[in-house]
Amino acid sequence: MTLHLPWIIVFLPWAGALLLAALAPRGRWPALVNLGVSGVSCGLALAVLAVPEGVQGWTRVDAVNQPLVALAGIIGLATAAFSAATVEAERFDGLRARAYHAAFQLFMGAQFLALLSDNLGVMWVAIEIATLASVLIVAVHGTPAAIEAAWKFFLLCGIGIALALFGTILLYLAAQPLVGQGDPGLSWGALRAVAQQCDPGILSLAFIFLVVGYGTKAGLVPLHAWLPDAEAEGPLPITAVLSGLLLNAALVAVLRAKAIVGLNPGALEPGPLLVGFGLASLLLASLALWRRRDARRLFAWSSIEHMGLSAIAFGLGANLAGMLHLMGHSLVKSAVFFGIGAAAQIKGSQKISDIGGLAASHPALGWGLALGIAGLAGLPPFSLFVSEFRLVVAAAAMQPWLVLSIGIGLLLAGTALVRALQALCLGPPTPDAPVPGAFTLPGGLWWATGPAWALLALSMLLGFALPAWFTALLGDATRLLG
Amino acid sequence: MTFGSTGYDIAHLLGGGILLLSFVLLYQRRLEGVIGAFAIQGGLLAAAAAWQGWMQDEPGLYVTALLAFGAKALLIPLALRLLLRRLGLHRTVEPALGIGPSLLAASALVGLSVMVVLPVTAGQAQALTRENLALALSVVLLGMLMMIGRRNAISQVIGLLSLENGLILAAIGVRGMPLVVELSTAALVLMLALVAGIVVFLLRDQLATLDTDVLHGHQGERHQGERHQGERHQGEGP
Where does the chain cross the membrane (chain B) (predicted)? Predict the structure, then answer.
């Protein structure tokens, strides 16, 4: 059972996708089936935590992907719940409803496969499938804005994954004399075992292609242009998984490459390159955050900022801070997107100026959103505070000059987010203009606030009350990523 | 295997031909010409894959060759031609970067990729692999140049498709590359989805023009005043 678990967890959502594509979209059935499949996947994803480390053919279970797979399961379930309550307001016709739900499950399966694969070729295919599924979801409304966003997403990420494939081919070329022909040539474990004797020149070249290729998908500046559009124009619920999960899978791909190339003393040092990309992302995003008028674009830019921070942490070798930051960002950002999505449904607009005073008119939603935004700004008691603190300490110990630029970035971004918090949550409420069909399930708004508060609570646990076994797991991941 | 043996020479010739067609793609002024050149490039790629399959004794590569021929030499060019006819377009390629400068930039890029790949791989792989890799990287970079240098949506897609031809050229040239068939098929699926996407979207009324500049007006925040008709937030309903 445990041997096949990685494949079950990939093919269960894909089977769900087939079912959802075949099912006549009548009433609430597709949304509920989607929720059910996501629930079972979430249970399986949590079970992966109990699987002993090991390689099963093309897949592997190790300390790096166990926590991220569990996280993906949890966020997938929370998103499916939010989606069930809001999908009616998206006004999909029959075909679009099928496409939306099927693509969601296709995306989730590909996401699990990308995290779990040991074979870098399989990982590439998984990330490609995830791209195709998310392009389909972003474009599903068919409005000019959605098509523009999907087109940009497709072209830029198409180039990105093409370059990543070139990098993958080069990686095999470097290892070929040592591992011989056949499948082991692309296995992460096998490549790590021989990395020290590989030709350093080819390894360096491979890493440059991989970091630019997968970095495009991770939204690192200057390859980020698709991200704000894709996250602002797609259907509301999908933003949470695009921002919380897709970026993680791409960054993990970069980290896997880094872990191979970093072992070779003659090859280019992967750390400084990642720090450079990360710093550019942090600084550009911290300035861009000040000029956003669209709430979803604002938080899309905040994703760029946080991916930049994670990249800096991994680049400096502060892997624990990086892992914590990735996970904390996914949890808090998804919660914020649920809050913003619900607010957009209630106020009939996603412009910041049209959403105001949520804390007074809808306390559970408004205060949840306020806490989430405060968490994104790096304020306690969320795990992003802990990971940013650890990152700054690590930077001060290794590269003191970096502290200044990280500090400026954090301060600028934090104040911009606090300003958004005041505009969105505090002050006098703006008039409601609810979208017909939103939150008509029994329970109403709780379908948004429930998942959001649950994710915020998890993020608090992650920051301040980690169980000992989970800390040990993250420690193993730190060592694996080297 | 070195210069002078037939296997090497033919593989080299096919790779060189693919690169040459990347240049041809860049100097075409009419879309029909671009599509025709892309079809020939796809055919040459299929021949190169089949030749490598025979040389490396790797039957899987014949599958790659067959798929490349069917999709890139026949299906995609046919679909794009039908699309042009359906839209009644006999248009020029609308270069953002002129033809002359594009060709100069392309020559510089080929020089760059040779200078990057050959020294880096000097100690290792056999000559054919190294030179094949340099050719493939050139094709990749030229595809990218075409995407940057053309404003027209169809030209941009063909740029990406020819970039992907370069990738397949690299993958088939590395002896014993695992999953080569799976990877090339997966890349092909991505490209087919892209072509299907452009066909579907261009046939809709919303995008009667092929110039991607028009799309920028619909982009979220850039033109706040002009968005009311195009933009529809989920919140506002249809």
Answer: 6-27, 34-54, 60-84, 96-121, 133-150, 157-177, 183-203
Give yes or no for a contact between A53 and A131, defined as CB atoms under 8 angstroms apart.
no
Q: Cβ neighbours of residue A15 under 8 Å, at least 6 residues apart?
A: none
Asked if A125 lies within 8 A of B186 by C-beta distance, the reply is yes
- A165 touching B, CB under 8 A? yes
User: Looking at beta carbons, which residues of chain A come within 8 Å of B160?
Assistant: 155, 158-159, 162
Estimate to the nearest angstrom the gap between the alpha carbon of B234 and the chain centroid: 35
Cross-chain residue pair B178–A204, CB shorter than 8 Å: no
Of A90, A150, A155, the CB nearest to B234: A90
CA triplet A67, A71, A76: central angle to 5 degrees? 150
Contact A293/B234, CB-based, under 8 Å? Answer: no
Q: Report whether B90 contacts B81 (CB < 8 A).
A: no
**Tens-place pLDDT, residues A430-445:** 888 888 777 777 777 8
Contacts for B117 with CB less than 8 Å, ≥ 6 apart? A205, B130, B133, B134, B137
The token pair at B211 is 């110039």
- CB–CB contact A349 B235 (8 Å): yes
Cβ-Cβ pairs closer than 8 A, A with B, add up to 182
Are the beta carbons of A327 and A225 closer than 8 angstroms? Answer: no
The pTM for the full model equals: 0.90
A76-127 pLDDT per residue, tens = 999 999 998 888 888 788 788 888 999 999 999 999 999 999 999 999 999 9
Select from B56, B175, B205, B233 the residue whose CB has the most chain A CBs within 10 Å, as the one to mutate to test that interface: B233
Say how far apart CA A17 and CA A312 lie, in whole Å. 36
The reply to whether A440 touches chain B by the CB within 8 Å rule is no
The owner of tokens 């096949």 is: A4
Q: What are phi and psi of A416, to 5 degrees?
A: -60, -40
Beta-bridge partner residues of A119: A187
| Helix ranges restricted to H, A180-293 | 188-194, 200-218, 226-233, 238-241, 247-261, 270-288
**In this structure, what token pair is assigned to residue B6?**
């037939």
pLDDT at residue number B123? 66
Q: Domain limits of chain B? A: 6-209
Q: Which residues of B touch A199 (CB under 8 A)?
A: 120-121, 123-124
Check CB contact under 8 Å for A297 and B219.
no
Q: Is the dihedral of CA A260, A263, A269, A275 positive or negative?
A: positive
What residues of A are in contact with residue B190 (Cβ under 8 Å)?
128, 131-132, 158, 161
Q: pLDDT tens digit string along A194-230?
A: 888 888 888 899 999 999 999 999 989 888 888 888 8
DSSP state of B96: S
